[in-house]
Amino acid sequence: MNKWSAYIDQFANKIRAPYATRLFTILIYVWFLAQAAMIWPYRSLLWGEDAVLLHSPYASSLLNNFFYQLVYVPSRFNVVFGVHIVASAIALFECRWSFIPRIAAWCTAMMLYYSAPQAFNSGILFMSLMAFYSVFVYTKAESSWNIVISNLARLTMVVQVVAIYSLSSWFKLIGEHWVKGDALYYALNIDVYSSQFWQKLSQFPVWCSIITYLTLGYQLLFPLLLLLKKQRHWVLLIGVLFHLMIGIVMHLWDFAFAMIFCYALFMKEEQAKFLMPFRKLRKMA
Amino acid sequence: MLICVGLVLVVVHFFLTSVYNLRYWAPPALRAVADLYSFPAFHQDMKLFAPDVAMYSVHLESRVYRDGQWQPWMDVTEKAGFDLRSRMERVEQNFNHALSWDVTQNLYSKDGVTQFDRLINGAAYRNALYYAWRMQTRFSPDETYDSIQIRLHYAFNPPAGQKAEVNHSQLAFPPYSKQQMTR
């Protein structure tokens, strides 16, 4: 009982893992900026008035009309894209009013996604959700009210990551190829994701099965492995290598880095402090 | 008090977004509430994190009818100058997989003749056709043509451990006239 009351007391009076949380919020907006840079050459093809995508109909409602506005007013895309980049750049820094650029970055990310969903993978949905939670993060909070909200936002981010691993491993278990162990074999043979070098690996189906099952096992056990505090850095290192492999083999770098970045939430404070990109930001945190 | 309210909000948020993701197991009334809450602001398709890996590579190809004859089939995205790793190829792949899924659901035969009526009235076909038409218009503006036709080019991989060759197969959709497109 005392342990719980001490925990609640700490939750209300002290920002939990400020460096790790701060590092993660920076990485969210670094990811948005990198995504914007990668998609820059294709912007008019995806969102311009003569875009190559046919927009699907959507139900009219206040929220839908807001998030889908680039569908019916594509001429706004330059403004929305510009606001997204500027807001993401400002959101890298933390101050009392950081929630404003963070809301702007989240809203514009969703607008860009909804008017060209075919151009993205689950990485943007995950990062947008995290950007929404980060609106409530303020690692320099001093009042009890702000500390609780910031800690709750961090808790929500952590639960979200665990939920993604749990639900995606559940979906893999009810799918066909992951349980049979040939998911990696087929993935290596899809030409847009793989290359001739990696396709040669698929000639060793036993190894493909072993790696498929290890991947599935890692995802299934991820929430439990996080509880091993002393070995957690090894768990995260394996996860980083696993997601880097997705980047290298399948060229899904945006998705790979979205998942790697979320590991910042689980880092030790001294490690997160060491990785803070700017000294000034480190001081601010 | 604030912690309790906050925790309740977090629990409700995760409950509703989980129902939204596992929607087919949820009762309709609960699903409606979850949809209302989760879409569009908290939309997340967790199935995207665990895609059922396709057993084939698939590409969208098109050809145009010009000068009284059909021109050769060409990959829609490659013809426009984009490589396999480009963002536009990712766009094409999303169309291809949606259309492939629709093919499994809506392609049928009647009196031994393949019927496309259900397919060509679906969103997946319209999206792919529009993409092919726009890419053709944008990247080959000087090529005048009367009609355009698209097809899916599959390369089916043999099952793991078998030394069979990759099996190529094409599914061509009915031609579409430019007049229909710009009407």
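qc> Chain A touches chain B through 66 residues (CB under 8 Å).
qc> done
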